[in-house]
Amino acid sequence: MAELNTAEAGTGRLSCHAVERMICEIWSDYFSRDILPYDDFYDLGGDSLGMIDIVGRARELGLPVRSSVALRNSSPARLAERLTVGAESEPVALPALCADTGIPGPVDPRPVPIVATGAGEPLYVMHSDSHVETERDAVESWGSPRPVTGFPLAGGPIGELADRVLAALRRDQPEGPYRLAGFGHGAVLAFELAHRLRRLGARVPLLALIDPPTVGTSDDASRDSLLQRRLAMLARRFGLTGEESIEEIHARMRQGGWYGHVRADELAARQLSFVETEFAVRDYEPADYDGPVVLFQDGTDSTAWCRAIADLELHSLDYGIESPTAVIRDAELATVMRKALQG
Q1: What is the C-alpha to C-alpha distance for residues 196 and 178, in angstroms, rounded to an integer?
Q2: Which of 57, 75, 95, 221 is the most buried (most CB within 10 A)?
Q3: Residue 82 phi, psi dihedral angles, 5° rounding
Q4: Segments of the chain with pLDDT less than 50
């Protein structure tokens, strides 16, 4: 196994991505095979005694992991999140992400082709805030026989976002039927768009909600407190000390699969936009919907969605991590979407 930077590990400032890679290497050495971030220790044939041996090796490399934690988090991705994003630590100020750039004003959504060729009505994809490149790659892997167009997510109240995207959809395709999919916060937008299109008399034969957030759970958090939570999460996830330049932060994010679609100088404004959308989503109450919906969920509470949707095909995944990457790239999701796009 390659030597790892034990001094860096000992600072507790490794990124989640780096810790995940370290755990994969430790497991690869133990099992004498390549290990992927979402492999399960017990499915690989490991047992509690073996995990104790692995924990000892991880500690030698500077990872502050306890056996009880490792036993409860049985994939490299899940354990890495627990050791970084889920770790208790002092707040870190991130001045580079707190530049007073302001929230971008409303802009007309600009659809971006993902699959330019094909026959039939297109699929319209509402992207998340942070993982657009990963989502585009996943959509391409679905092998859609239809054209696919993506809409990057702009921050703001769901109703206002839906107004602007709906106008763009109708310009691009004046008549239905409309096929929609959404990732993360974009799934909430896709759901609201489906409602509005159906009220206009259009058919929506496909609505796919991919790892949408829990909705209708306002906890009276202010925008400022949501921003502080967001920055704290980013500091832990990317191992930030607060001394990095915006370019260094952007490079770490890109390495971990985040914000590859934006420039470094847009990152601060993106966090404000995210908070505006998160603030709106917490108050969003899904209205009753009787059209067909496919819902892919990993761990978050889907009660509100299940209660509102009468014709629901639910796929419960079991990655147990906050990062959406695993769900976006999930093989079952790809199979279901490939089949749905044939119709």
Answers
A1: 11
A2: 75
A3: -65, -35
A4: 1-12
Does residue 31 belong to any structural domain of this protein?
Answer: yes
Amino acid at position 152, single letter:
P
Q: Find all residues with CB under 8 Å of 44, minimum gap 6, and list them.
A: 27, 31, 35
Would you call 50 exposed, middle or buried from its count of C-beta atoms within 10 A (0-12, 13-18, 19+)? middle
Tokens of 97: 């992400």
| Domain interval for residue 198 | 112-216+279-340
Structure tokens at 196: 């509005």
Asked if residues 219 and 213 have their Cβ atoms less than 8 Å apart, the reply is no
* Domain tally, the chain: 2
pLDDT tens digits for range 155-210: 788 998 999 999 999 999 999 899 999 999 999 999 999 999 999 999 999 999 99
β-partners of residue 297 are 316
Q: How many CB atoms lie within 10 A of CB 30?
A: 18
Query: Per the confidence metrics, is the pTM higher than 0.90?
Result: yes
For residues 213 and 193, give the distance between their C-alpha atoms in angstroms, rounded to a whole number.
17
Domain assignment present for 96: no
The CATH number covering residue 200 comes to 3.40.50.1820
**∠ CA(37), CA(312), CA(141), 5° rounding?**
40
Q: Is 255 a member of any domain? A: no
Q: Are residues 128 and 200 in the same domain?
A: yes
Spatial distance between the Cα atoms of 342 and 209, rounded to a whole number of angstroms: 18
With respect to residue 223, please indicate whether it lies within any of the assigned structural domains. Answer: no
